[in-house]
Fold this protein.
Amino acid sequence: MTDAAPSPQTRFRRSFLAPTATFAVLLALGGILDRTANGYTQLIFLFMFVNMILALSLNLVNGFTGQFSLGHAGFMAVGAYVSGYLSVLTMGVGARLMFLPQPFEFLNFPIFAVAGGLAAAAAGYLVGLPSLRLRGDYLAIVTLGFGEIIRVVLLNTKAVGGARGMPGVPAPGELVVGDYVFSPFFMNYLWAAFWLTTTFFVLWRLVRSTHGRGFQSVREDEIAAEAMGVNTTKMKVQAFVISSFFAGLAGAVFASATKYLNPSTFQFTKSVDAIIMVVLGGMGSLTGSVIAAIIVTMLPEFVLRPLQEYTGVDLRMVIYSLLLIIFMISRPQGIFGKAEVTDLFKRLTKARGKDGRTSA
Amino acid sequence: MEDFIQHLINGVSLGSIYALIALGYTMVYGILQLINFAHSEVYMLGAFAAYYTAIGLGRALGADLEPGIVFFGIVLIVAMAACGVAGLTIERFAYRPLRQAPKLNTLITAIGVSLFLQYTGQVIFGADPKSFPTVLEDRSLVSSGGIDLRLFDVTILLTGVAFMSGLHYLIHRTKTGKAMRAVSTNRQVASLMGINTDKIISMTFLIGSSLAGVGSVLVGMKYPQIDPLMGLFFGLKAFVAAVLGGIGNLAGAVLGGIIMGLSEEMVVAYLSSTYRDALAFGLLIVILVFRPAGLLGKWQTEKV
């Protein structure tokens, strides 16, 4: 990444081709799932996408900026509730409001998701501004506190059902092409894949931009960064707000996938889930977060659930937490450390040396 | 007015339990700069140790066993021992290998240990709440004009004060205490002065954890329901109390605990109980934004 000015071809490849190709591949997978998998498996895949977006967003704060946030579930909750509430208002059973009429109804959800993301970002700004002056443990505790406060506020808000939760969140609006109506699962999947691709590539480009370098300088050495003229508080708040936005998107996807929201979903343990994924994949590795999200979502379903049926006790979280401890002691940098999967390809194709980033 | 005084009594009694647990957080933080998230689970283990001891003794002795100060004492000692051992084990196997690692790694490990104990607890003890057996018969000591001073509140307060004074003596009047203070000031220099820092750190965990054991028995007595997740919120609030008073500062932990207990009691009494948990965090945020070092703490600028 040290080359000064990328050629127009490279630029085209980076900013357009790679995301489009990724999205196309994901859609193809979605098509297969839509035809072959049962509803349960389909839901697992949607959750996997939610987890990926969540882990990616948290990685920006915890991995790249080096700030420890323990309240990510709170921002996810804001996104989920805003998007879910708007969906219920306009597309729910007996909805009286209409946002976009039929041929464009499928665009409702992405707009609501962005609204959810923006609301989460606003919450992130409110939380971040006072708390990001603090460092390390204090920040961890304040974010934890804010996460819990967001949950308590939701718990006491009658409009969204309070402790009873909010049922009947509709699937994204229908998309009709000719005579063909896409299934609700496919619409959910489409937008989940869309937001995942967006999140991944926006973050991918962001951490390699001037701003991204700023974030990373805060992680490496805050005092040195400040001495070099980096406004560290501003950097931290920016990272926090962007991260909250994407967490809000994850929440929006979650809301339309589960069709039911409850404040207890967004407890401290949800934030810990996100942290486990980031730590497992490697703090500062985006592809690592994606892979860790796959592991964390799939492992319980396809390995631990059979085990649970066999032994009769839920050992899922016991194994999770043990994994976390063992990882921290034996391989604290996670599976990938700061490296990306693409670095491995590079190492395979290129001759050794030169690329300084992989050895870091 | 009578109501208010009654709430005051309840608040102080709850506060002294918070204080006992907050002391454990603050001691570990003072010496390792680590938020020991597993402390709340140590407290949970203490409650279960007390529970099984009380049940076991009840079965073994049957009718000979009467709730009273002796029974209370036995249960208390067992809970303290169990917590002490748990604290030592956690320190030895989870934190010591990470002594040189970045703080963040230790913090995540602490969260891992906490989750591990919570869920292992659910597997072993069962997730459903258990009712804590009567180790001491509660009765009214003084009752006049709507104010009711009960034996539990007095016991809790007396036990709390006793252990806190004991800790104060230990920290400020004994050689071990001096070593602990030295290690918390500067671990490296302390070890150069011939202090076995690992031993002192273990000692800190032992003492802090056994105080959590005391707290767990008192909670079991006053709010007689225990479950494997009981530590989660109680521990967080105790931690908030420690931060409130100034983390790393023993007197601060006690002050923070009392403030925490009082304000919680008052919020439940005069506002609404749904805001009880938010209150703790609200307090925390206000204090961290306006006085990040806590009420009694000293703010240290980070040096290069």
Summary: Chain B touches chain A through 46 residues (CB under 8 Å). Chain B is about 75% helix and 5% strand.
